[in-house]
Every structure is written in C-alpha cells, then in structure tokens.
Amino acid sequence: MRLANVLNLGIKELRGLARDTAMLILIVYSFSIAVYMQSRSVPDALNRAALAIVDGDQSTLSTRITTAFYPPHFNPPVLIGEHEMDARLDMGLDTFALVIPPGFERDVAAGRMPEVQLNIDATRMTQAFTGGGYISSIVGSEVREYVDRYRSAPMPNADLALRARFNPALDQSWFGAITNVITSVTMLSIILTGAALIREREHGTIEHLLVMPVTPTEIMLSKVWSMALVVWVATAFSLLVVVQGLLGVPLGGSLTLFLAATALQLIATTCMGIFIATIAGAMPQFGLLMMLILMPLQILSGAMTPRESMPEVIQTIMLAAPNTHFVILAQAILFRGAGFAVVWPQFAALVVISAAYFFLALAQFRRFLR
Amino acid sequence: MNAAAAGPVARIEGVGLVFGRTRALVDVSLDLPAGTTVGLIGPDGVGKSSLLSLIAGARAVQTGRISVLGGDISDVIHRGAVQPRIAYMPQGLGRNLYPTLSVAENVDFFGRLFGQDTAERQGRIARLLESTGLAPFADRPAQKLSGGMKQKLGLCCALIHDPDLLILDEPTTGVDPLSRRQFWELIDSIRSARADMSVIVATAYMEEAARFDWLVAMDSGHVLATGTPAELMARTGTADLDAAFVALLPRERREGYEGMAIPPRTTQADGTAAIEAGGLTMRFGDFTAVDNVSFRIERGEIFGFLGSNGCGKTTTMKMLTGLLPASAGTARLFGHEVDPRDMETRRRVGYMSQAFSLYTELTVRQNLVLHARLFEMAEDDIPGRVEAMVGRFGLADVVDALPDALPLGIRQRLSLAVALIHGPDILILDEPTSGVDPVARAGFWQMLGELSRRDGVTIFVSTHFMNEAALCDRISLMHAGRVLISDTPAAIVERQGAADLEAAFIACLEDAIGEGGTAAPPPPLAEAAETGPTRSRAFDPRRMLAYTTREALELRRDPIRATLAILGSLILMFVIGYGINTDVRDLSFAVLDHDDTTISRDYVLDIAGSPYFIEATPLTGHADMDARMRAGEISLALEIPPGFARDLARGVPVEIGAWIDGAMPSRAETVRGYVQGMHATWLARKARELHGAAATPGSFDLVIRYRYNPTVESLIAMVPAVLPMLLLMIPAMLTVLSIVREKELGSIVNFYVTPVTRLEFLLGKQLPYIAVSLLNFLLLMAFAVFFFQVPFTGSFLALTLGAVLYAFVATAMGLFISTFMRSQTAAIFATALLTLIPSMQFSGLMDPVSSLEGAGALIGRIFPAAHFTTIARGTFSKGLGFDDLAASYWPLVLAIPVLLGLAAIFLRKQER
C-alpha cells in the first residue's frame, strides 16, 4: 500500500466533492440550518400543554387553581363542562383534564380529604408524566397556601431543593442541537462515502483505477479519509459556530476530546458507507438501504431516548453500533464535561468497532470489485 | 420513392436550441420530404438527436418553428392529435425499453399506451414479433437480449401503432454488421408495405447512410448540406460518404485530415509476444461470456477486435488487463501471466475503456497529473510528461477545462493521453472512437499509427467501424464469446471471397450462426386492419393501466425494491416501537446521607423501593457525587442534611438537596416529576404518622387516571403514532423513485411522445404503490396487534378507511415531489427530508400538535400525517369510530386532489 496513492486519490475525492453543488448544499444545510432549526423548534418537554378544567366548585380556591396554570408550561386552561371532557380528550384537543368536585373548598377546609381527579391522555407519553407531576405540585401548593391560615399544629416541613445539573433550565434545545450534530455526522459520512463509490462505479472510473497500480485498500482508504475529513471539519464548524455561537449552548467539556472521538466514529461510519454502497450497487438502492440502517442507528443508539429504557436485547445488539458509544461519549463530554478518564471505555469500543468495520468493508469491497 | 408526393413531413424554420452555454442547434431551417427515408448524418454531438427529439415532440421548441404532419408541433392540441401517428425510438440501445420486462410485455405496454384493446394488441404483437424474428424470444427479458435483438424490439415497440412518421435515432450503433443489415432489410420491408410512411434516421455510420433516399449532413448545430447520397458525393467529387462529409466541413474543421491511413509495419516480428491468450474463458454463472479464446499479438502490432456489443470483447479485454480473473485459460503480457495482484504488469499497460471514464470533476491537467501520480512517476518528471502529452495530443487550449465541457473528439484524445501518460508498452483500447467525427477519428488513428510504428507500442483495439478495422495489422471477429476468424484484413476478405470487409464479416457471421442469413426474408408486415382514427380521449383508463401494469411488473422483478417496500416498514416499526421509549425505569441514584437516622433511611427507602430507581453505593462526598454524575453513573443524587430527623419532628424547615442529570432534558423532567411526587407522598405520610390519623385541613387526594393507556406503556403510545410516519415515507419514496427512475434512465421519453396524458401517467404510476401501501398497512397492523400486543379498541373499518385515504395522499405527495427531481439520489433525500421530519416532529409522534408553536404548529395543522395520527390513535387506543373522527378525514380527502393537481401542473409533458 502506498500512502501517496491514498493521498492523491483522496485529494481527487475532495476536488470532486467541491464541484458537487448538491452535496455541498446538503453538508452546509445539515450542519447549520438543520441543527439550528431543529434545536429551536423542539419545544421543552412540557411546553404549552393543553389543559382543560372542569370546575364543579366555582369557589375562591378553585379559581385560584385555575389561574395558576399559564404559559410556557401550560396553555391557559379551557373551562369545560364535565360532559365535554371525554369528547375533547378523544379528539386530542386536551392532554390533561382536571376535575374539581363541588364543595372542594369547603371539604379542604374541613379536612375531609376531597378528591380531585386528573385525566391524562396517556398516548402522549412525552407530556403525560411530567405534566402530571407539574399539575399535582401546582394544585398542591395552591391548596397549601390557601389553608395555611387554618393551620395550628406544626407540620413536618421539608423542602426538596431540586436542581438539574449540566443543563439547569432543562433546555431541550441544548440536547436537540447536539443530537442533531450526531445525526448529521452519521448520515453525511455514510452518504458521502457511499455516493463517492457508486459515482465511480457508474462512471466506470473505478475500473480505470483498477488497471492502474492501485490496490482496493488504497481506493477505499482514500475515500474514507477524504470524506471523513469533510464531515469532521463540518462538525467542528457546527459545534463552534452554530451550537456554541448561534444557539448559545454552553459546551461542558473538551472540544478536542470530542473531535477526536468524532474522528473515530467517522472511520466506522465511512466504512459503513462503503459497505452499504457495495451491497446496493446503485444509488437508489443505496438510498433505500440507508434509510433502513440509518434510522435504527439513530433511534436505538440512545441519542433520542434513554438507552436504559430499551429492552435488554436491543441494548446488547446496539453495542455493536458505533453510534451507541459515540452518543454516550458525546453526552458525557459535551454536557457533563467528562474527561478522557471517564470516557475511555467508549473510546476503546470505538477503536475496536472502527477497526472491525474497516476490515469487513474492505473484504466486501474486494468482493464487489471482482 | 415518391418524394414529391405531398408537402414535407416536417418543416423546420429557424430552429435554435441552447443547453446552458452549449448551442445544440443554430438557426436550422429545413424541409424533410415525406414518404422517404431521410438520414441525418454526422458524428455525436452535432445536434442530430436534438433535432429528432424536437420533431418527435419529446423536447420543447425553444426558438423557431417546427411543423410536423401539417401542424405546429409546439401546439399542444396538434401535438396531441399527431402523436398517435409518430413513433420515436431514442438513441441508446433499448433506452426506452424496460429491461426487466419480457419482449412481449414491452411491446404490449406500448400497445396499451396507444389505447389498443387486448385482441388488437395480441394480433399486432404476434405479427410484429413474427416478422422481426423475435417470436421465439417473446418471454425473454429485454435486458438479456443481444444488441441487435434489442433494436428489433425497439422497432416493434415503435411500430405497434402503425405510425406515419418513424423517427429512429442511431438505431444501429453498437450492433454487429449482420444485425445491422437485417435491421435495414426489415425497415425496407415495412416501407414497402406502407409506402406513405416517412422515416427519419440519424446515424454515425456513413456506410449505412448510403442506402437512404435523402441525407442531411450536420455539424455543430448547423446543416452542412442536403441531398441524395449520390448528389452529395457528386457535389464534393468524392467516392464515399465519409470523404464527402469531411469535404463538406468548413475548412478549419478539416485541417489536418489526410484520410485514414497507417504505414505498413516495417519492423517485422522479433518474435516476442506482447499479448498472448490461451484458451481464455469467462463464465458468469451458467452463461459463458468468453469461450476458449486464443490469440497472440506481437510487439508493435495493431490488433483489431470486432464484434457486436455483448459478444465478449470487453470481457476479453478485462481479462487481459487483470480486471477480471479468467475462469479458465491464461492471459500473458510479455510472457508473464496476468496476475491482478501484480502491480508491475499494470505499469506496462495503458487502458482506455469504452465509455469516457475519466474524472469529469477534475480538469484535463488534474486528470493527467492524477494518473501520472497513480502510476508512481517521479514527481519531478510529471510536469514535463504532462506537457509532452498535452502538446502531442493537442490539448493545450483546454488544459484547464473540465472534460464535460469538451467535444467528444477531444475527450477521446484526453483519454488516450491519460492511457499513455506513463509510457506503457501495451495499449488496450475499447471502442475508442465510437461517436467521434471522421476528422477526429482519422487524427486518432494517425496517432495510433505513430505509437505503433514509431514507438513500438502494441495496440489492442476494438471497433465497430470497418474502415478502422481495415487499418489494423490483424483482426479478429468475435461472436457470442468465440473468435470466428483471425487474420489480416486482406486475407479475410480473400478467404471469404467477399467484396469488402463488411461483406466478409457478414458471411462469417452467417456461417457461424448457421442460418441462411437473408434467405428467409421476414414476412412483410401485413398492412394493419384499419381501426379507424384513434381518437385521443381526454382520459383513457387503458393508458393509465398500461403504466400500472408495467410498474407492478417492474416492482415485482426488482427484488431489492420489492423487499424493501414491504419488509422495510416492518423493520422500522420494530426499531421505533422499541427505540422511542419514554418509560423511565431502573435509573440509578445515590445518596449522601449526613443524618443517617431511621427517618432519613426511611426517606431513601421510599425512593429505592419504587420501580423507577435503583440505589447505587452511597456517596462519600461532594467530589464523589461530581465524578459519578459526570461519568453518567447516576442520574439522581440526594443529599440529606445533618439533623434532618430532629428538625423534621420539630417542624423546623429542612431542605433535602436533589441533583438531576440534565444532559437528557426529557428524562430529567420525568425524574423530577417522580422525585417530587415521592417527596410529597412521603411528607403526607409522615404528617399522619406524627399527628395521628386525625384529618388535617388542607389535605386532598389527587387521583390520576391515565386514560387510553392505563399502564402508561410507551409501546401503546408509540406504535399507533408510528403508522402514519411509515405509511408516508415508504410509499412516497417508492412513488418518487418510480418516476424519477424513468427520467434518469430515459424511458420517460415514452411518456413524452405517446398520447398518454399527465393524469393517466400519474395515476397509473400511483396505483401500484397504493396497493403496496395498503399491504404495508395490513402487515403493520398485524405486527402491532399480534407481536407488540398493542390493544386495538376502536373501529377497524374507520382506521382502514383512513389508511386508504392516507395511501392516496402519501403516494400523491410522492408524485408531487417527483416533479421537481431529476436524479434518484436527490429524490431519495428530498423525500426523506420532506416526509420524515414533519411526520416525526410536527405530527404528534413525540409532541402533541396542540403544543407546537410557530411554523411547526402550521405544519402540524396541514400535514396529512398529523391527521392520520389522530385517526390511528383514536381507533387504536381511544376506542373511536367514524363519527368521532370525521373531522380528521376531511383534510386527507382534500389533500388528494390538491397534491395530484399540483403534480399534474408541474409535470412536464416535454423535455426542456
């Protein structure tokens, strides 16, 4: 293997990419506009939740409760009659319906333990839990304040000082921005390398290369390094300018460490691109196959939802995917400011996976050229 | 031929055509006589194809006016009226055919496009296949036909509707001489049966042009001359059309043309074989592409290789270059067996492949330098060598241009320069001159002559041109993987006792095939029974179904697309069902307990006992807490202050510290909810324990009812909401691809030149994918209900109705997207972006539409997936039926005509 060939062919790839306007637009879009937009458009976990209140009491206390819900967490509550409640929940107009029974204020004052009912549309998982928690604590504190004047005996009085670390306001856009960068890293590196290979095949240039003193390893390596470099630079740009600059997300840890991990991840994903391209053979098939691979990769890697809540089997299988480790590592470094001492196991896993993917892809690539 | 019978079949007045900066046609004015065979001659890229596509109505006229069959072809009504009378066979072997469809299915499809009924079609197909000799191969897929057979099939497809005007664009390029002759005999027999039919043919073979009635010689977008072949030769005082054509060229274009000649070999054989093949055989599965081929080529010899496309020439060349390992036999270069791993032999070989295969994204110089480097030339020698090549092959003016911007002739020279950059001893050229104009070809062969005679380079070249073959020192004729004959051109002509090389080859081929050649002239095409004027109906279901049937057949025969279409959605559902899981369970937490009393331990026990949390080893201090949270080991840390139990009993305010890992905000929110809830419950219990069961004012019960999903399981929430996403993305993508594929492969031209309307085309393409979509729906339902065990509580009928409407919407959306797309790759991305993101983020999959803001909220209100999500969730989890969901059907119903209408408006019936 001659490094000069790898270098020359890689430069050729970069020149080719420089003239491919569509791909350039896609790269710029994915790492800037897409990251920005998606991070901005994802609302916080509980954002403008739709709440309806059936106020059977019409008392000072119930009015107090009603006025305690306001944006951004809740839309101003809609006051409805009990008979409307089911239909509105059915249509998905409301996510929560709070039923305050007649005589609520009186019963509370008398210590008769009245029952407030909270109906939650549990098909809306993202809001169901958090919203339920918010509502019960809001109702609780309103009631407590109201009855404070009736209180005689000392009550156990313990406060819970809850603080979220690494993202004090639990701003979803921080998370969204990073998730998006990770998605773009994976997607683009697969697309760029795969497309580069398929383009060569379709134009017949790969045959031309093969009659020259160039080995398959050199051809593959040249694509891997050049396309990985492009995505790597785009990632750095995206993190510094878009995520840190425009979106103002404070990055906790060492950017260098993260970019080093990105390089490893890119080796694995570019090899994946080569692999898929050799199986697909043509661009349309490549595109379809990619969807089937990319989506599981992203969704099951823990980038979108916590890994621990997936079935054990899936968690185990996903250990073979570079994304899983990359996501863990990215969250640790960028949010929690973890250093190499903490994330070395993920680094090790990425090294092993990238190496394995490389040799698999190389073997497949050789077969493909035959 | 009665050329003067009527007015011209086509009148072209001041027609110009511009592609970007290229001027394909410049102010062309021409009358093409009716009832004759008109030939357009000239090399590739002079505007022949453009002119033909304009006449056929496949391309929109930019400037000027073209009348065809008595009316302006730009006029939509006239075009609609005459299209049933025109047949157009575009350039490229079988480019408008469908490779996976059989011969009969291909012809049948065209019959349907012209609205013929079954009986009529069957009769015509039988007659056509019989007369072209394709009848025995009626069930063979088009992709498995030889070049000659593909052309015949193309012709059958063109003739299915008895056209009055037959337009053939280079119908015989790449076909062996025998098939070529048979093809023209077929055309002649058709013409004799239908004397008033006009034929317009473009060709690059001058030998062929000699048999046409009337010729139009073209060069760089201009008409050079018109007239009968004899007239043209007489006018230029030349003996053959090749020379006549060159003589017609403007002076500066023919500079340096000295006819085609190569001095005889002077340095006679020194006995060393440069290339030696012994029993070379290549098998692909049970198909033998190359069968026991042997030859020996001496150093400095020019060895020609002839044969039709697909006869094994290219395969043989690939084996010689080590691109393909031979199944049997040996290939030797300079006495060394070809070994794909041996880099040394590669350095001695220069290869120029059939299609232009240099990097179009690199300039001429960059291409040369790259190849020099890849051949490991010393960095210092490269600039000199590149300059030498640039000078020798006349590339100085274009050295910084991109290959795409260059004329074909110059590109071929560049290919040759690249192949020679490292000074190889052997040059392997695969049809280097196809499509190149005669002047450039002569120049090219002159260069080959120099290389061979002066530099002693051994040249192995394949060609279709007989005058090129005649220049070779020796030639081999290949057919169906075997070498039929191998000798000097003169000896071959002599041995066959033929008049010229072409005749000699035809004789050879006939011997090999063992049929009497033209002995059995094809039965003349029975003049078709008059079926009355085929009135063009505004909407003909038959034409629509032609596309439906074909699309379905193609999909079924493309295993990758078919499998992905069906299994794809199942895989994705599985992934998402398990992956997008918002249940939070078994989170680890740790406690820093400064109090360490029964009370504080009781507090912790409450949390540790819940299904949500698992207690990890207690924290030793703040540093420990910090490290473990950073590592992501614990999601929650609690700190209980000293004197917690005492203060609590006294009613002194105390504070428990809780830190949540906020890296994943949605999970953190859930954790916060849990902790707050448990804290409140614990306090209430303590209060009762401390103050007895006596009711305390201010206490109330908050009863939470999780509706529709009482166990609050992610699967139940996710699976119904994933349906809309999957049923949008996959059908839309398949639909987009079905149209863009045709654009990319060229078969879209059948839509341009036949009477199919836009709506017929769109609906025809849409129907099979609606079926795919519904099949997907049923599979996904079965999977959801039986595998994921998601309870289905509502009306299945209501959901199915929604799914049917949604299938129409999803595919219509695909049709709409396809109108803006040219390449399949772009189409896939665009479709993914346009379907996936809105259906994931703005349709209630994760966040309810009612919680979206700004643009997201607007998308959520109009995007069809949002409405289908309501239907799916309503029927799955909420036990709803038609009446409850009525409001969600209307937007879907409305979306169908809107999307289809937009697609029909933006779809072009002509190329621009």
Automatic annotation (TrEMBL), chain A:
<protein>
    <submittedName>
        <fullName>ABC-2 type transport system permease protein</fullName>
    </submittedName>
</protein>
<feature type="transmembrane region" description="Helical">
    <location>
        <begin position="341"/>
        <end position="363"/>
    </location>
</feature>
<feature type="transmembrane region" description="Helical">
    <location>
        <begin position="224"/>
        <end position="243"/>
    </location>
</feature>
<feature type="transmembrane region" description="Helical">
    <location>
        <begin position="20"/>
        <end position="37"/>
    </location>
</feature>
<feature type="transmembrane region" description="Helical">
    <location>
        <begin position="173"/>
        <end position="198"/>
    </location>
</feature>
<feature type="transmembrane region" description="Helical">
    <location>
        <begin position="286"/>
        <end position="305"/>
    </location>
</feature>
<keyword id="KW-1003">Cell membrane</keyword>
<dbReference type="InterPro" id="IPR047817">
    <property type="entry name" value="ABC2_TM_bact-type"/>
</dbReference>
<feature type="transmembrane region" description="Helical">
    <location>
        <begin position="317"/>
        <end position="335"/>
    </location>
</feature>
<dbReference type="GO" id="GO:0140359">
    <property type="term" value="F:ABC-type transporter activity"/>
</dbReference>
<dbReference type="InterPro" id="IPR051449">
    <property type="entry name" value="ABC-2_transporter_component"/>
</dbReference>
<dbReference type="InterPro" id="IPR013525">
    <property type="entry name" value="ABC2_TM"/>
</dbReference>
<dbReference type="GO" id="GO:0005886">
    <property type="term" value="C:plasma membrane"/>
</dbReference>
<keyword id="KW-0813">Transport</keyword>
<keyword id="KW-1133">Transmembrane helix</keyword>
<keyword id="KW-0812">Transmembrane</keyword>
<feature type="domain" description="ABC transmembrane type-2">
    <location>
        <begin position="132"/>
        <end position="368"/>
    </location>
</feature>
<keyword id="KW-0472">Membrane</keyword>
<comment type="similarity">
    <text>Belongs to the ABC-2 integral membrane protein family.</text>
</comment>
<feature type="transmembrane region" description="Helical">
    <location>
        <begin position="255"/>
        <end position="280"/>
    </location>
</feature>
<dbReference type="Pfam" id="PF12698">
    <property type="entry name" value="ABC2_membrane_3"/>
</dbReference>
Automatic annotation (TrEMBL), chain B:
<feature type="transmembrane region" description="Helical">
    <location>
        <begin position="715"/>
        <end position="740"/>
    </location>
</feature>
<dbReference type="InterPro" id="IPR017871">
    <property type="entry name" value="ABC_transporter-like_CS"/>
</dbReference>
<dbReference type="Pfam" id="PF00005">
    <property type="entry name" value="ABC_tran"/>
</dbReference>
<keyword id="KW-0067">ATP-binding</keyword>
<feature type="transmembrane region" description="Helical">
    <location>
        <begin position="889"/>
        <end position="907"/>
    </location>
</feature>
<keyword id="KW-0547">Nucleotide-binding</keyword>
<dbReference type="InterPro" id="IPR047651">
    <property type="entry name" value="ABC2_perm_RbbA"/>
</dbReference>
<protein>
    <submittedName>
        <fullName>Ribosome-dependent ATPase</fullName>
    </submittedName>
</protein>
<feature type="transmembrane region" description="Helical">
    <location>
        <begin position="796"/>
        <end position="818"/>
    </location>
</feature>
<dbReference type="GO" id="GO:0016887">
    <property type="term" value="F:ATP hydrolysis activity"/>
</dbReference>
<dbReference type="Pfam" id="PF12698">
    <property type="entry name" value="ABC2_membrane_3"/>
</dbReference>
<feature type="domain" description="ABC transmembrane type-2">
    <location>
        <begin position="680"/>
        <end position="910"/>
    </location>
</feature>
<dbReference type="GO" id="GO:0140359">
    <property type="term" value="F:ABC-type transporter activity"/>
</dbReference>
<dbReference type="GO" id="GO:0016020">
    <property type="term" value="C:membrane"/>
</dbReference>
<keyword id="KW-1133">Transmembrane helix</keyword>
<feature type="domain" description="ABC transporter">
    <location>
        <begin position="275"/>
        <end position="505"/>
    </location>
</feature>
<keyword id="KW-0472">Membrane</keyword>
<dbReference type="InterPro" id="IPR003439">
    <property type="entry name" value="ABC_transporter-like_ATP-bd"/>
</dbReference>
<feature type="transmembrane region" description="Helical">
    <location>
        <begin position="560"/>
        <end position="580"/>
    </location>
</feature>
<dbReference type="GO" id="GO:0005524">
    <property type="term" value="F:ATP binding"/>
</dbReference>
<dbReference type="InterPro" id="IPR013525">
    <property type="entry name" value="ABC2_TM"/>
</dbReference>
<feature type="domain" description="ABC transporter">
    <location>
        <begin position="10"/>
        <end position="245"/>
    </location>
</feature>
